Amino acid sequence: MSRLNLNSILSWVDSHIIDYPTAMNLNYNWSFGSSAGFCLVIQILSGAFLAMHYAGETHYAFSSVEHIMRDVKSGWLIRYMHANGASFFFIVVYAHIFRGLYYGSYMEPRQQLWWSGALIYVLMMATAFIGYVLPWGQMSFWGATVITSLFSIFPFIGKEVVMWLWGGFTVGNPTLNRFFSLHYLLPFIIAGLVFVHLGLLHKDGSNNPLGIKTKTANVNFYPYMYVKDLVAFFVLLSVLSVVIFYFPNSLGDPDNYLEADPYGTPAHIVPEWYFLPFYAILRVIPNKVGGILTMGGAIAIIFLYPLLNTSILRSANFRPIYAVVFWLFVADFCLLAWSGTTPVDDYFKVIGAVVSIGYFAFFVFGGLFVGWLEKTLAFRALSK
Amino acid sequence: MFSRAAMEAARVARSVPLRARVAAAASAAAGAAAVGGATVLCDDAVHTVEYDWPHSGFLQTFDHAAIRRGWQVYREVCSTCHSIKFVAFRNLIGVSHSEAEVKKIAAEFEVEDGPNDEGEMFERPAKPSDRIPGPYKNEASARAANNGAYPPDLSLVVKGRHLGHHYVMSLLTGYTEAPVGKDLLPGLHYNPYFPGTSISMPPPLMDGQVEYPDGTPATVSQMSKDVTTFLAWCAEPEMDERKRMGMKWCSAMFLGLALSMYYKRFRWSPLKTRKITYHDINR
């Protein structure tokens, strides 16, 4: 390998990809990161091909998607890949984030790495939301109307802000047009941030299941981590293929196969599944401004989490209380997603409120209190 | 694309178990109507019946003979009110009809074309490459002809409803007498599967309404099954190809997975089988 180092580009490749040292004990949870990058590549490539046939104009958008589905050769394959690929991107990224939460990858010295990742996640949500508008189905239109209207909470200028976003008095052609443009732009910003994320990762190297830095138990990225990532890619591709070819619409809403109709609201306006937890938090507060601020807080607290940490141990493998709290949080997050699909009546509202509180409680309680508690108990045990 | 034999095989009375379930569903609907009080009070719909479609399995294709009969039902019954605007005549070729048949079918329709050399629009017989023209010029004329109700385009209805083909089948076979105490507005009909239970579509099918050239008895349930299969195909014309391609892709991915897992084991086994021992050199 040393000959590689004579050329500056090759030596960069060598030190960051080939001979890059990685802790030997990384488990498959560490493959979600590369899988997420792989998803981004799938989305950008399939998206570029879709854009060759799509028309970003309200009269043609819906039928141009049907044109892709029916007339373009393998168009259905590309579209199903893109639509389900988005869902899988979120599955992988959620797993990646939960991995970080469990093993303490947000802790010193990797706070900036966490923040860059959280930023990618926020941009992903924006991109996915905007992308969902493009087929111009009923859910596209009404989802766009509901979400853009959230910006009306700005005092005094709220209405102007929303109309500025729309480019008109309602969600319409200018909105669709700019959304198409942004949907093509944002993924490249995400890709740029991915490189920032990787740069920050390589500053301190990956965390590992023990949460201890090692200089001796390292292996080269190639071929050791490379083969594990390869296995993960094939797991992803296998499941994705089954969904694309056999259940291509199972993750979508039937209403989006009805063309957008500004005069007919669908019976239930539901976002895509990956937004449901936040949608649930939005709905749980009966006051509009309060709901929006709480939802914003739910995202902001992800950024704050490294600052809330009081633990001196990283990995939940050595943090029995935190491990329990973590798994409770996973369950809470799933319940929150489910709660986003329920009708807003008394009974479900109570559940929604409980799991929303649970969400915030994890970050505050799990960050500030559990770390302190574990430390205290451990020192007390040691001093005996 | 699909061989005669396959179409023949698919045709062989797959409909029997389905028909049995329709009968069961019909009596369930009647039962729901009988205890209509509950249905009316919440004014919601009866749950869609889930049928055992011959095309829903991993290895199953559409019943192409049913698509052919379903096209006939659509053409003779539904097309007086509903369009299927995303489907072109040519799409039928190799699916349910031969090219010669499709040319003949298309020629029965008139489409607007132009402008010609004089700058006028003109009507001409449709060609296989044309989209199938609908019964109305636009939504307003459709509403005008249907007491203000709009018969939706059916090309995506199977994808555009929860439980798609199950729902359409339930709807078409679900018409019954309105339960006592249920007041229907004039022009509305009682169908417990329709959200709200009052639908403006009159019961479209009656026993013996069409005459199938292949001798299949044209009962309401048979016609419903056929036209629903046709509409399912309209919504997902790529399904047969998709499943066949899926077999190849999924096999390739599973193979890739197996190989990469082997490769991973191969690369890691020296590390995994290492033994680290401690020797105290001072001893």
UniProtKB/TrEMBL annotation, chain A:
<dbReference type="GO" id="GO:0046872">
    <property type="term" value="F:metal ion binding"/>
</dbReference>
<dbReference type="InterPro" id="IPR036150">
    <property type="entry name" value="Cyt_b/b6_C_sf"/>
</dbReference>
<feature type="binding site" description="axial binding residue">
    <location>
        <position position="197"/>
    </location>
    <ligand>
        <name>heme b b566</name>
    </ligand>
</feature>
<dbReference type="GO" id="GO:0045275">
    <property type="term" value="C:respiratory chain complex III"/>
</dbReference>
<keyword id="KW-0479">Metal-binding</keyword>
<dbReference type="InterPro" id="IPR048260">
    <property type="entry name" value="Cytochrome_b_C_euk/bac"/>
</dbReference>
<keyword id="KW-0813">Transport</keyword>
<keyword id="KW-0408">Iron</keyword>
<dbReference type="InterPro" id="IPR030689">
    <property type="entry name" value="Cytochrome_b"/>
</dbReference>
<dbReference type="InterPro" id="IPR048259">
    <property type="entry name" value="Cytochrome_b_N_euk/bac"/>
</dbReference>
<feature type="transmembrane region" description="Helical">
    <location>
        <begin position="221"/>
        <end position="247"/>
    </location>
</feature>
<keyword id="KW-1133">Transmembrane helix</keyword>
<feature type="binding site" description="axial binding residue">
    <location>
        <position position="96"/>
    </location>
    <ligand>
        <name>heme b b566</name>
    </ligand>
</feature>
<feature type="transmembrane region" description="Helical">
    <location>
        <begin position="141"/>
        <end position="158"/>
    </location>
</feature>
<dbReference type="Pfam" id="PF00033">
    <property type="entry name" value="Cytochrome_B"/>
</dbReference>
<feature type="transmembrane region" description="Helical">
    <location>
        <begin position="289"/>
        <end position="308"/>
    </location>
</feature>
<protein>
    <recommendedName>
        <fullName>Cytochrome b</fullName>
    </recommendedName>
</protein>
<feature type="transmembrane region" description="Helical">
    <location>
        <begin position="76"/>
        <end position="98"/>
    </location>
</feature>
<keyword id="KW-0793">Thylakoid</keyword>
<keyword id="KW-0349">Heme</keyword>
<dbReference type="Pfam" id="PF00032">
    <property type="entry name" value="Cytochrom_B_C"/>
</dbReference>
<comment type="similarity">
    <text>Belongs to the cytochrome b family.</text>
</comment>
TrEMBL record, chain B:
<comment type="similarity">
    <text>Belongs to the cytochrome c family.</text>
</comment>
<keyword id="KW-0496">Mitochondrion</keyword>
<keyword id="KW-1133">Transmembrane helix</keyword>
<dbReference type="InterPro" id="IPR036909">
    <property type="entry name" value="Cyt_c-like_dom_sf"/>
</dbReference>
<keyword id="KW-0560">Oxidoreductase</keyword>
<keyword id="KW-0249">Electron transport</keyword>
<dbReference type="GO" id="GO:0016491">
    <property type="term" value="F:oxidoreductase activity"/>
</dbReference>
<feature type="binding site" description="covalent">
    <location>
        <position position="82"/>
    </location>
    <ligand>
        <name>heme c</name>
    </ligand>
</feature>
<feature type="binding site" description="covalent">
    <location>
        <position position="78"/>
    </location>
    <ligand>
        <name>heme c</name>
    </ligand>
</feature>
<protein>
    <submittedName>
        <fullName>Ubiquinol cytochrome c reductase cytochrome c1 prec (ISS)</fullName>
        <ecNumber>1.10.2.2</ecNumber>
    </submittedName>
</protein>
<keyword id="KW-0679">Respiratory chain</keyword>
<keyword id="KW-0349">Heme</keyword>
<dbReference type="GO" id="GO:0009055">
    <property type="term" value="F:electron transfer activity"/>
</dbReference>
<feature type="binding site" description="covalent">
    <location>
        <position position="81"/>
    </location>
    <ligand>
        <name>heme c</name>
    </ligand>
</feature>
<feature type="region of interest" description="Disordered">
    <location>
        <begin position="113"/>
        <end position="133"/>
    </location>
</feature>
<feature type="compositionally biased region" description="Basic and acidic residues">
    <location>
        <begin position="121"/>
        <end position="130"/>
    </location>
</feature>
<keyword id="KW-0472">Membrane</keyword>
<dbReference type="GO" id="GO:0020037">
    <property type="term" value="F:heme binding"/>
</dbReference>
<dbReference type="GO" id="GO:0046872">
    <property type="term" value="F:metal ion binding"/>
</dbReference>
<keyword id="KW-0999">Mitochondrion inner membrane</keyword>
<dbReference type="InterPro" id="IPR009056">
    <property type="entry name" value="Cyt_c-like_dom"/>
</dbReference>
<feature type="binding site" description="covalent">
    <location>
        <position position="201"/>
    </location>
    <ligand>
        <name>heme c</name>
    </ligand>
</feature>
